[in-house]
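WARN no homologs supplied; continuing
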Amino acid sequence: MKIIAREIPPRTVWALEQAGVHPLLARLFAARGVRAKEELDDGLARLLLPDTLRGTHEAAVLLADAIAQDKRLCIVADYDCDGATACAVGVRGLRLLGARHVSYLVPDRVVDGYGLTPPIAERVADSGADMLITVDNGIASVEGVAAAKVRGLQVLVTDHHLPGPELPTADVLVNPNQPGCEFESKSIAGVGVMFYVLLALRSELRKRGVYDTATQPKLDVLLPLVALGTVADVVKLDANNRRLVAQGLRRIRVGTMPAGVAALFKAAGRNASAATTFDFGFALGPRINAAGRLADMTLGIECLLTDDAGRAEELARMLDGINRERRDIEGGMRDQALLLAESLFATDGEGIEAPPPAISVFDAGFHEGVVGIVASRIKDRFHRPTFVFAASGAPGKEQELKGSGRSIPGFHLRDALDLVAKRHPGVLLRFGGHAMAAGCTVAREHFETFEKGFAQVAGEWLAEAELTRQIETDGPIAREYMRIDLVDTLHREVWGQGFAPPTFSEEVEVVSQRLVGEKHLSLKLRHQGQPIDAIWFSHTEPLPPKVKLAFRLDADEWQGVRRLRFLVEGAEF
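OK structure emitted
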């Protein structure tokens, strides 16, 4: 592991400080590409305009006409947190704007697979709907959209995923990544796309005289859901996404949020009045995702839709229970996957065992709803592109393996799958995804061919430097900033993918160390001559007396007293 420090442009730091930004935050923001204080303005007026997102005007006209004609609208969602929040935003927003008949349908991960398929289109048509609206899916659903059109449905596709070589023949497509779209925030989540469609619809309804600025419904009530889905989907937090997330957090902290969001905070044991992006990514998001992984995402969506606090708490408890089950399944799968991964290690010329350039593992006992999480754990452990496969649970497809992959910087996962497919025709039955995450399906008999082909591509594309894990940090932290109030200041900011949370690095003295719960390393350190406690989660190997650590600042509370501590992210020996 190599610890490297980000470049911090001193002139930018000075300019931010002169503009009134706290010196520590000025340093952190400058290292993340912020050049002026105006970029930190998270006001709603600074959001990108809806009319710059291609298709929003046409979508607004289509929906306004449908509302005027009292048509029946059905949203087809996805079974992850982005899809669930996008569905809830769509249902709530359309009802706020006058739609009287809004229903939704969410595919089953095992039976239906991903996206709008022809059978799902048939189910929507059979339900009596007039219009089908996709959220967080649909841009690759060429056959599904065609089936919907044959049944006479109007189709509005709202999505953010990369399009394939052929676009679906929907009535309207709204996707920042479609050809010809000049919307600056290409990383907007599916829930953000749906929110922008609603903004455009409200504008169209004002033009038609349905509302004026005084009587129009307030769509900012949807921002807590937009923020949750954006962070949980791990999209890049560019300036526009950070504004959406900041606005959602602001409302949650003052208690303005759907009953289900409040109930999820309670079920997770988190304090909504001090809500952070960490809560979205590691507490609320996983509980909603668990429903789509092991049960039915309808539970998650209903939790986000209900306005009954009692019902919301009941659903949140159910989601919490499913998430506990998911963690148990994941733990067993992770241990088995680690053993399988280690069996692929080869011995180099110096007798040191090392992982292959890419890892693919399969076990008949793996659960397909958890393969993505386990792939992420294996990728983190060995710093290799990783696929984890499970046997399909869909009727008649027992001989198919469904895999989920996670990648490392410098290796585009979807492009790698495309090359494997070209080199080994027929091995990949289906595949899709992004640079850092992707999914694919292979026949069980072709698993070994995929494993070798995938590793071959990784071996060709990845140099030794890219196969060495690096932690990018903000360098040393001055003693004057080692304060609890600054920990709270840091936590209140919007951090996440592409705008990494502050991580510092320094050489420290290890005074003592012990294992906690048999899997976490508890440390007493000396930092700049002063004692400090630290914890390294999921790490059991002892540290030398002096070591360079990468760490984040955290506050640990014991018997009502809050103390500063380090959360260790890595070490360089």
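The mean pLDDT is 95.
OK
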